[in-house]
């Protein structure tokens, strides 16, 4: 998200909202996309697939478990192979932080690379759809109080959102285990009790506990019930919130851990609207890189720098 200017963020949101209200585009007609997901995904992968189809693209099927990466093929060779057989766009999710730097800086790739999530680093498409959902509701970011509660240190969503929301004028606050509140987040806002966050925030973003990234000892010592009691969002806490406050979550949700079952679809919840907006944001991202192709190499290079890591 640091590579996007504020204006480029607003331009992408505007494009996404145009797609949401009926704008049509066949910019991807006759072109191919490959979704290289090396970590599990439901929403991001399927959302990109739908976005690609809506833009007229064909998807090249890919499953990491049956690909040549299991034989030792490098990520670069996989991407270069797909470029060579005709793919125009590669959406990549990978466990390595900043995997894209090697692809972009060390190789002469022509294929467009869109970051579908890198390790615990960044998740730009999720961040953009979150921004769109907030902007639809409030019409601004300036002065909004946004609280992010949960596994901050392991969350690419928290990193992306805290960074860009601060730059767009929101005031950031954080909740969850003290050990997850790293100096990076301390520079952007204070750590608060969850009850106080619920009373004061305009937006409450919840994060799941990423057990797959915790140590064995951390997982052994984790109590779902104790965590929910101290940090989870239940209806008592929802009732503390402002009338127009928003509840958000990038999903997957762990009901009964960070959020109660009856909160997921309550009146203040925007969780499924986020998912719906995700298709249009990802259409806007793909449209931006393919539009660059049509406008010449100078614009293409700029677009590739902008979106996409």
TrEMBL record:
Residues 2-136 form the Aspartate/ornithine carbamoyltransferase carbamoyl-P binding domain. This is Aspartate carbamoyltransferase. Its EC number is 2.1.3.2. Heterododecamer (2C3:3R2) of six catalytic PyrB chains organized as two trimers (C3), and six regulatory PyrI chains organized as three dimers (R2). Catalyzes the condensation of carbamoyl phosphate and aspartate to form carbamoyl aspartate and inorganic phosphate, the committed step in the de novo pyrimidine nucleotide biosynthesis pathway. GO terms for cellular component: cytosol. SUPFAM superfamilies: Aspartate/ornithine carbamoyltransferase. Pathway: Pyrimidine metabolism; UMP biosynthesis via de novo pathway; (S)-dihydroorotate from bicarbonate: step 2/3. It catalyses: carbamoyl phosphate + L-aspartate = N-carbamoyl-L-aspartate + phosphate + H(+). L-aspartate binds at residues 71, 156, 208. It comes from Companilactobacillus mindensis DSM 14500. The keyword ATP-binding does not apply. Keywords: Pyrimidine biosynthesis, Transferase.
């Amino acid at each position: 998200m640091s590579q996007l200017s504020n204006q480029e963020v607003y331009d992408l949101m505007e494009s996404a909202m145009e797609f949401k209200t009926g704008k049509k585009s066949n910019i991807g007609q006759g072109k191919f996309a490959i979704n290289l997901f090396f970590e599990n995904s439901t929403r991001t992968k399927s959302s990109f697939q739908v976005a690609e189809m809506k833009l007229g693209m064909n998807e090249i099927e890919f499953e990491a478990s049956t690909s040549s990466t299991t034989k030792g093929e490098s990520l670069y060779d996989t991407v270069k192979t797909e470029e060579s057989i005709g793919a125009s766009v590669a959406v990549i999710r990978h466990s390595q932080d900043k995997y894209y730097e090697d692809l972009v800086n060390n190789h002469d790739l022509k294929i467009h690379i869109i970051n579908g999530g890198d390790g615990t680093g960044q998740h730009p498409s999720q961040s953009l759809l979150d921004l769109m959902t907030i902007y639809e509701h409030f019409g601004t970011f300036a002065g909004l109080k946004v609280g992010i509660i949960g596994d901050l240190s392991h969350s690419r969503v928290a990193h992306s959102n805290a960074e860009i929301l601060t730059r767009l004028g929101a005031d950031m606050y954080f909740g969850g285990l003290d050990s997850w509140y790293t100096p990076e987040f301390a520079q952007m806002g204070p750590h608060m009790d969850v009850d106080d966050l619920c009373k004061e925030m305009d937006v409450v973003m919840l994060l799941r506990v990423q057990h797959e990234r915790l140590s064995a000892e951390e997982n052994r010592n984790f109590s779902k019930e104790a965590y929910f009691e101290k940090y989870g969002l239940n209806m008592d806490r929802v009732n503390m919130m402002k009338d127009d406050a928003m509840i958000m979550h990038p999903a997957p949700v762990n009901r009964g851990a960070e959020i109660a079952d009856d909160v997921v679809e309550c009146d203040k919840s925007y969780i499924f609207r986020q998912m719906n907006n995700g298709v249009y944001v990802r259409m806007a991202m793909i449209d931006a890189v393919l539009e660059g192709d049509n406008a010449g190499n100078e614009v293409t290079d700029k677009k590739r720098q902008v979106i996409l890591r």
